[in-house]
Design a protein that fits this description.
Elements (H helix, E strand, L loop, with lengths): L20 E4 L2 E4 L19 E5 L14 H12 L3 E5 L3 H14 L1
Parallel strand pairs: 3-4
Antiparallel strand pairs: 1-2
Length: 106
């Protein structure tokens, strides 16, 4: 239950306040304002290598796919052995060229 919420016990008037409250059987237990509960995280099943670059494809490269940017990005991805590739600030034709080259080479 979150702070400031209300609870009704067997027809009683609602109660509210700034504390967390928990119900045990027929009794009301009021807990401190901040209760830290352990976070349950699943065990990892595999590890992946991610490769990310900001290519500034339009600003610095004018959208070109022939000025060496695509070649450099593809070479770097293949050398890294990345499972996941992420690009930002890249033009559509550059994304298509990188994708095509990666499919050919990897």
């Amino acid at each position: 239950m979150v702070a400031g919420s209300s609870i009704v016990l067997a027809g009683a008037e609602p109660t509210s306040g700034t504390v967390l409250a928990g119900l045990t059987g027929a009794s009301l237990t009021v807990l401190p304002e901040r209760v830290l509960l352990p976070e349950l995280e699943p065990e990892p099943t595999e590890t992946v290598m991610a490769w990310h670059r900001n290519l500034a494809g339009g600003t610095l490269h004018g959208g070109s796919v022939t000025d060496g940017l695509v070649d450099a990005a593809v070479s770097s991805v293949l050398a890294s052995g990345a499972d996941l590739v992420s690009l930002n600030e890249v033009c559509e034709q550059q994304v298509e060229a990188v994708g095509a080259r990666l499919r050919e080479g990897g």
